[in-house]
Amino acid sequence: MKKHHFHFSFTPLGAAVALVLMLGTIPLAGSGPPGTNIKANLPYTPVVTPNGSTLPWKMVDGVKEFHLVVEEIQWEVAPGMVIKAWGYNGQTPGPTIEAIEGDRVRILVTNQLPEPTAVHWHGVILPSGMDGVQGLTQRGIAPGETFAYEFTLRQHGTQMYHSHGDEMTQIGLGTMGFFIIHPKQRERKIDRDFAIFLSEWFVAPGSSRPNPKIMTDFNIFTFNSRAYPGTAPLVARTGERIRIRFANVAQETHPIHLHGHSFKVVATDGGDIPLSAQWPETTVLVAPGQTRDIELIANPGDWALHCHRRHHPMNAMGHDLPNMLGVDQADVQEKIRELLPHYMAMERTGMGGMQAMAGHMAGPENTLPMMAGDGPYGAIQMGGMFTILKVRDHLKAGDGAAWYQPPEGTVAEKVPAGQRLEPTKP
Amino acid sequence: MKYHVWTAVRAFAGLFIVSSCASVPLDGGFRGVQEQVETRSGAHIHWIQGKPEDREVVEQIQSMLSKKLSADEAVQVALLNNPSLQATFEDLGIAQADVVQAGLLKNPVFAARVRFPAQEGSNNTEFSVEQNFLDIILLPARKKLASEKFKQAGFNVGSAVLNLALEVRSTYYTLQGDQQLLAMQRTVVQAAESASELAEHQHMAGNISILDLSNQRAAFHEAKVRLMQSEAGIVAKRERLSSLMGLAEPDNIWKIKAVLPELPHQEPPSGALEDRAISQRLDLAAARQQTQILQRALSLARFGVVSPVTLGVNTEREADRPNLLGPTVEIGIPIFDRGQAASARIQSQLRQSKKQLEAMERQVRSEVRIHRSQLLAARARVEYYRDNIIPLHEQVVHLSQRHYNYMLKGVYALLQAKRNEIDVRSQYIEALTDYWVAQSELERAVGGRLSTLTRDDGTPMKNDESEIPPEEHHMQHDEPEKPPEEHHMQHDEPKKPPEEHHMQHDEPEKPPEEHHHHQGGKPR
Ligand SMILES: [Cu+2]
Prior knowledge:
The complex is a heterodimer. By secondary structure, chain A is mainly beta. Chain A is built from 4 helices and 23 strands. Chain A has helices at about 10-25, 165-170, 330-340, 355-360; strands spanning about 60, 65-80, 80-90, 95-100, 105-110, 120, 145-150, 155-165, 175-180, 190-200, 220-225, 235, 240-250, 255-260, 265-270, 270, 280, 285, 290-295, 300-305, 370-375, 380, 385-390. In chain A, strands 10, 11, 13, 15, 16, 17 and 19 form a 7-stranded mixed sheet that branches. In chain A, about 45% of the residues are buried. Mean pLDDT of chain A is about 90; it is low at about 1-40. By secondary structure, chain B is α+β, with helices and mostly antiparallel strands. Helix content of chain B is about 65%, strand content about 10%. The interface of A and B includes residues 317, 320, 338, 345 and 351 of A. Copper (II) ion binds near residues 252, 254 and 309 of chain A.
């Protein structure tokens, strides 16, 4: 396969950077979340938010105090595409809040948006007046104001926080984040704990501001507001217990599928699912307003993790394009080229060739090609809600960028010439 | 008797020779017209009179027709070859004959009388030669009148030549514009055909319904029938130009240049043009000449008051007496008709023609202003298309292609974007045609080419290129022989619109003839 160098490809360098960022939040040698006073001996495995971060806190009179600033940000969806999103502390999703059941938390919220906002602590059991619904449980936080929310955590689980003022705009532009409450004690140790927010956007090709008025025709689908090939891989060691938390406050349901594993949905935003009630899955459906935690034991390999709606693991594509599958365009192409010298007929054999084409044909500004990514065996032809779970027997630096080396004889190959190829008959 | 008769005849013959030696050289008048036409149109005329030069003219025409004709060449062919124009040239011959006629005295009247005696006796014979004396006196005035008329005929012929030149020029530009539009329409048809073929293939592949296919087919056939209509229109326009150029059917293989010239860099200022029109328009000259003619006619009429005076010699012989020879005089007595009516009539005509001349001059000035403003309006439209609309549509096509590359737009939308671009290019061509037709009209109003500033292809004229800095180059005079009133156009230069300055100064290093290429939206 010819290798095309184009700026949004998932280059080893980009992956290495992503890995370093990610490893920075992995509790190696007992380091705590960045910025905290507590260096070691957390009673939980800190959560990794790929492409994101964890919100630091400090103890103030026995209360864990967090500070969120909601503002407009420049957010890179993937190399080659930067949007004007709204987020917390410079990111979307906002930094992950982690606390422990029983903690008293105080969350300061400073509004730097051009309109009032309020933050709702989705799924958290708290006094009504702390629920953060603008107009219903509190006055809106005016631009420039800082509000304090304070409550004691009486549960554990994967909760969320998100704007509850002008949701169409504010959530539509990215104002949400994880609120993870760890149990005081966990029966089974989790080796790796990942959190992935599912979102969709409409960014008109060639533009940079998501259109919050679009309700169904989204064209960008993201894990933690990043689209493949901008999504960081999840790296783990063979045999580790991995938890992946999914959250959704957008418009669509996302059936998230993990290759190579059977997993169990162990919790929802309502709490833990008893062991006896868990059943094996390879795909978990995450509807708007839900969180789902899955757990699995890592198998070695490079495993695709993606939404199973066909158009979600891909980037923007026109919706009303003529169907050219199987259409012979060779003669017409020459005629059209007389008018449009750069014209290339597409799709006769399918859309897969599009990735190669996008490699040498320019697209609109600030727009990702609908499919991208080069793997060890050629074009991966993916985008959007797609990432890779990389499981290795022995972890070392750079694993996030490297490809899995399969044992001899374990890769599908072309049948040698001369071998009988008769299909089995029923 | 014989002797005396011959004496009388000889005396008149002397008078005749004196009076009639003022014959006009055969093509003297035509040469004048040639010069007038040449300074005004830059084109040459030839009067086919069966002379050896005719052959060269035919060859010249053939050589011009063998290549793609420029507007100037089309004008030139017409001026050399248009049969109606050749017919008009005969007006000069006619006027010239009138001049000769005016220089001829009326033939003297010879009378012979024989009287026979009633009784016996010899015959009485009498011979006389009589000539109207007034005729002799008026001869110089009449000659002057005829030569003024001859001059007027020259102006009229010149004016007819220039009018033909204008008609050829504007027909040429219209045809040229239409040819370009036709080429674009062919592209539109090609786009529609491609879309239709794609739809056929889509249908064959099972991807679209017959309904969708029919829509694409219909769009294609509609584009095609519009093309057919335009092609028919071109045939008629070609025929028109062909007949103006005096070409008969077998010669109809001529071609004109494919592309309209681009805009010249600037227009001459209007004040100068009006004055130039007044001084150089040949129809005005002819009208002015009319007052001259009437003036002459008036003095002639005043002479006419003297009424017929006939002088003569009379010789009489009677057999028995010596011959008598003596002058005779007959004078009309102007009691009843003193010529007052004729003179008053001419005076009225004279006043009338002066007023008409004044009206005509105002009309001419107004025409110059109208056509100049039309020219400027067409220029503004051309520039707007060239600098704004076409670049935007090019951008749309370019970006549509990028959207197509990323599967954000389909091929039909891409083809449609291209068609829209062709549409605005067509509108540009229409505006440019309007510009050149307006320029031809303005030239007609001014009574000659504006070509001191621009060449036929719209580029500025150049003469002593080495001495002139490029940004001023186009204002320079190329033809020093041009009438003086054009010189002050240079002094008006600071009045030209500022944006034209900036067009110039953007790229001062460019050679002047490339100036018109530097615009982004240069249409193809
Ligand atoms: Cu999905």
